[in-house]
């Protein structure tokens, strides 16, 4: 007798959280390393620390850009 197939999670059920490195954020924002770390230090850009590695969730970068665009429009 065959066992039932394993349950497969669909992308809608478990959203993927993309984590970016500091160099990736530097490339996307066209900023230097110090400027990106200043944004992290002042908490304008959210991040997490995994061991010694700093990672920025992609949605945090999107939120940061959206906030800056709204500030510029005001």
Sum up the structure in keywords.
DNA binding, single chain, alpha+beta, DNA-binding protein, 74 residues, DNA-binding, HTH_17
Q: What does the model show?
A:
45% of the residues lie in helices and 14% in strands. The protein is built from three helices and three strands. Strands 1-3-2 form a three-stranded antiparallel beta sheet. The chain is extended and about 60 Å long. The protein starts with 18 loop residues before the first strand and ends with a helix.
In brief:
The chain is built from 3 helices and 3 strands, in the order βααββα.
Biggest sheet layout: 3 strands, antiparallel
- Structural class by SSE content: alpha+beta
Which percent range describes the beta-strand content?
Answer: 5-15%
Number of helices: 3
Strand order, biggest sheet?
1-3-2
Coarse morphology: extended
Protein name: DNA-binding protein
InterPro entries: HTH_17
GO molecular function: DNA binding
Organism: Streptomyces pluripotens
Topology at a glance:
Layout: E1 19-20, H1 22-29, H2 33-41, E2 48-50, E3 53-57, H3 58-73
Helix pairs in contact: 1-2
Organism: Streptomyces pluripotens
Protein name: DNA-binding protein
Keywords: DNA-binding
């Amino acid at each position: 007798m065959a066992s039932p197939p394993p349950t497969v999670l669909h992308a809608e059920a478990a959203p993927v959280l993309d984590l970016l490195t500091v160099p990736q954020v530097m490339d996307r924002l066209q900023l230097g390393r110090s400027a990106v770390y200043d944004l992290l230090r002042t908490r304008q850009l959210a991040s997490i620390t995994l061991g010694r590695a700093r990672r920025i969730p992609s949605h945090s970068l999107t939120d940061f850009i959206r906030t800056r665009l709204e500030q510029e429009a005001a």
